[in-house]
């Protein structure tokens, strides 16, 4: 697997690319410049070498460790898996409480009678959110979604049960997302029906009126796969991919950021019980060139609030050659697209055209900060009904992706900011479909761009499986990883495992440096003195024979 060029040989009428040469490094075409194939094999840490650093949890018969919630006040980790909720000690993931949460026999039977399999007719936890003293949980419950409010310190204690429809998917495979705001409103993006044809962005609970996206309107949402949701300032932002409605050249999927105002009250007469502030914009993650190569399909995101950056994993379509990329977006670039013109189609037979934004810098109708006496700018309902697709595309932080990887579909990522000797580094932890984590440098510096620091094998030899959930724990500098049949916790760094100066420096790990006084490989915190602590992050580390 190496850095490769995409050979573009022909251009079909609608600008669809025909990719002829996917991976030049694998095929070793002699005509290719050697520089294009210069990526060396990265260090790989075997499961055996990782074992002493790893804490592991599994429970007989339990699968799908896909939801994680951290309760820092009790030092506990709450885990949602198939038919179970677990409370674990955060320090060593040992079991504190196991709560079975399976569908009852009648619900299972009715699920199977509708043609679903035994496997599908289980309860897959898909929403697990801590909100103050309560834990909000939803599960697919054999295609009969249900939600329960529980006590954070005792997950078995159910305080309330509500319908899970429009909060949790029916089908465990469906891609949904949900979040509770600071004020207690639940925002969910999922499907509202058994067959999965009616997508919705829905607000409920809390003190605001329930609102949804326009029903059966493919211009709002068109076969979407929801990825994530964040509360940022006055808005709630959703990340998703969907079939592009503005592209009349065959079926193509675009990645999107959508947003609504948290103070949206819905319309009157027009857009009743419906968002009046819904807007969406396309995200661009591509390799530049005369004809850019697009990674159109967003798979997961990570929000770094300290820097207002959104990192995303993008892939090609499953029906084409598999390739992944990581792009990062500045929130200011997202805002810029939302402040720009809209794209609007007068009627289904006409083209989508750019039209000016009636309220650039729309702030949800709240008073502009710092301008007393400023005016309340509400969106008109007529505008809300026709203007929601932005004309401008959100461009990433760097022209080319921070990382590209052929022949692999990456799944989840988290990002840490690390203080090195010379500078701050962003380190990405990326989950693969093989049960490994790629620890990767994220930088715009060409000589270090996309360096794999190491690949960590979390599963024993002979086992593979996708990473289902990832959570970074800054409090004790570790990573919690949910897989299909287990949950593991690993430290972010293993500096003390490098026995010599050469090993320490050649790891090129920004967490680690050689302490000249102590003659040990340490973290910056463990160093005796900054002047005695050396690093040499000048190139990507290479695998030792
Ligand atoms: C795990 O940590 C808890 C406290 O955090 C402790 O009580 C328990 O003994 C530890 N278990 C193991 C197996 O180390
Ligand atoms: C947790 O809640 C359950 C159900 O309400 C109750 O039976 C149990 O005693 C509680 N456990 C603790 C430790 O409070
Ligand atoms: C959800 O997303 C995953 C990963 O992109 C994909 O493989 C899967 O097919 C999606 N689920 C559904 C029901 O389409
Ligand atoms: C996406 O970014 C590439 C690289 O900068 C650029 O060439 C292309 O025009 C952009 N595409 C869109 C739709 O903005
Ligand atoms: C994001 O944009 C803001 C405003 O344009 C800028 O000040 C900031 O440096 C940008 N962040 C990064 C990481 O480039
Ligand atoms: C508020 O709106 C009124 C009428 O549209 C206008 O005359 C006034 O200048 C506006 N005030 C501010 C501070 O923008
Ligand atoms: C740092 O690494 C480079 C190779 O990238 C090497 O040439 C150089 O000698 C190293 N410096 C130290 C102090 O180890
Ligand atoms: C990129 O990294 C190399 C190696 O550490 C360094 O020599 C160079 O100055 C860096 N370039 C920039 C633009 O920071």
TrEMBL record:
One Gene Ontology term of the molecular function aspect: chemorepellent activity
Primary residence: membrane
Location within or outside the cell: Membrane
Matches recorded under PROSITE patterns: SEMA
Biological-process GO terms, alphabetical: axon guidance; neural crest cell migration; positive regulation of cell migration; semaphorin-plexin signaling pathway
Domain Sema: residue ranges: 42-492
Pfam families assigned: PSI (PF01437), Sema (PF01403)
Keyword Disulfide bond: yes
Signal peptide location: 1-27
GO cellular component, one term: plasma membrane
Keywords: Disulfide bond, Glycoprotein, Membrane, Signal
Official protein name in the record: Semaphorin-5B
């Amino acid at each position: 697997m190496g850095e490769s060029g995409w050979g573009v040989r022909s251009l079909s009428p609608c600008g669809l690319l025909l990719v002829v040469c996917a991976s030049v490094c694998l095929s070793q075409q002699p005509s290719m410049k050697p520089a294009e194939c210069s990526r060396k094999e990265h260090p790989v840490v075997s499961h055996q070498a990782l074992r002493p650093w790893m804490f592991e949890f599994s429970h007989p018969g339990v699968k799908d460790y896909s939801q994680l919630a951290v309760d820092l006040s009790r030092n506990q980790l709450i885990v949602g898996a198939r038919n179970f909720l677990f409370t674990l000690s955060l320090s060593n993931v040992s079991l504190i409480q196991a709560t079975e949460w399976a569908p009852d026999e009648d619900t299972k039977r009715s699920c199977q009678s509708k043609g679903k399999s035994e496997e599908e007719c289980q309860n897959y936890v898909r929403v697990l959110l801590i909100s103050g003293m309560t834990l909000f949980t939803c599960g697919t419950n054999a295609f009969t979604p249900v939600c329960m409010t529980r006590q954070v310190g005792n997950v078995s204690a159910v305080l309330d049960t509500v319908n899970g429809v429009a909060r949790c998917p029916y089908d465990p495979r469906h891609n949904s997302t949900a979040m509770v705001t600071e004020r207690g409103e639940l925002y969910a993006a999922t499907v509202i029906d058994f067959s999965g044809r009616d997508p919705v962005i829905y607000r409920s609970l809390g003190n605001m009126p329930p609102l949804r996206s326009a029903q059966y309107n493919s211009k709002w949402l068109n076969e979407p796969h929801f990825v994530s949701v964040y509360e940022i300032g006055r808005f709630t932002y959703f990340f998703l991919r969907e079939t592009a409605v503005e592209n009349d050249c065959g079926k193509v999927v675009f990645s999107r950021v959508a947003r609504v105002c948290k103070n949206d009250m819905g319309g009157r007469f027009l857009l009743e019980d419906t968002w009046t502030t819904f807007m969406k914009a396309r995200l661009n993650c591509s390799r530049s060139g005369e004809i850019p190569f697009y990674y159109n399909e967003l798979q997961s995101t990570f929000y770094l609030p300290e820097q207002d950056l959104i990192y995303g994993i993008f892939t090609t379509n499953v029906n084409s050659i598999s390739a992944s990329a990581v792009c990062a977006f500045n929130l200011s670039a997202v805002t810029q697209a939302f402040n720009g013109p809209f794209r609007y189609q007068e009627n289904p037979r006409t083209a989508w055209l750019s039209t000016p934004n009636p309220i650039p810098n729309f702030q949800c109708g709240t008073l502009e900060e710092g301008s007393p006496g400023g005016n309340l700018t509400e969106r008109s309902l007529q505008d809300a009904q026709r203007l929601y697709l932005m004309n401008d595309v959100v461009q990433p932080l760097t022209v080319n992706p921070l990382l590209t990887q052929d022949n692999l579909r990456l799944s989840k990522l988290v990002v840490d900011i690390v203080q090195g000797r010379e500078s701050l580094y962003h380190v990405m932890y990326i989950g693969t479909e093989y049960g490994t984590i790629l620890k990767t440098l994220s930088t715009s510096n060409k000589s270090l761009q996309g360096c794999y620091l190491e690949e960590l094998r979390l599963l024993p030899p002979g086992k593979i499986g996708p990473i289902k959930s990832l959570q970074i724990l800054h409090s004790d500098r570790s990573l919690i990883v949910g897989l299909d049949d287990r949950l593991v916790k690993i430290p972010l760094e293993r500096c003390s495992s490098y026995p010599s100066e050469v090993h320490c420096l050649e790891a090129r790990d920004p967490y680690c440096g050689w302490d000249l006084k102590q003659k040990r490989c340490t973290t910056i915190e463990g160093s005796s003195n900054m002047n005695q602590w050396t690093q040499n992050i000048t190139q990507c580390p290479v695998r030792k024979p």
